[in-house]
UniProtKB/TrEMBL annotation:
Record keywords: Membrane, Transmembrane, Transmembrane helix
Domain of life, source organism: Bacteria
Protein known as: DUF445 family protein
Organism: Chitinophaga qingshengii
Transmembrane segments: 6-25, 163-182
Amino acid sequence: MIYLLPIITALLGTFIHYLAVQLLFKKILPARQQALAKQLGAFAGQQLSFSTIKSKLTDPEKIKNIIPLVEAHLDTFLREKLPKAMPVLSMFIGDSIVNQIKSHLVAELDTLFPVMISQYLDNVEKDLNIEKIVADKIAGISADELQKISQQFLHKEISQFKLLGAFTGFVSGIAAIVILIFC
């Protein structure tokens, strides 16, 4: 009977760690969700500075990537839509004039886009509070969904924690046997 002690304590250790995990996910985490949401929101707000986002969105290389789309749109506008809207102009606008107008507009837009996007982002920055958005999203997650996400994310660690309970229980059982035999 005494040799069953390590197995019983190993099972007891696993069960205690299982209860600790359940307590964490069913009681503690939902009770602290609002505070966690605020802290994660503050962290995200610090890490995602709007100036970093703005510099990436106004990067000249990124803007150059949209110029071909603008150029294609201008070509369609100058060759199809403008002559339909103003038929008299179609008599004066040929391929060479369309190409000249398009090249001048594209060159102008190439310098205008960074300024325009930067100004737009300045206006967006006033209304965009990353900290609040993240905090609100996390606070809005249901307790069950938060538990499910956390357990999926921490599945390996939870399993290791339960195994730690089994191991410490087993070692405690062996230690108890040693104490009983030698005392």
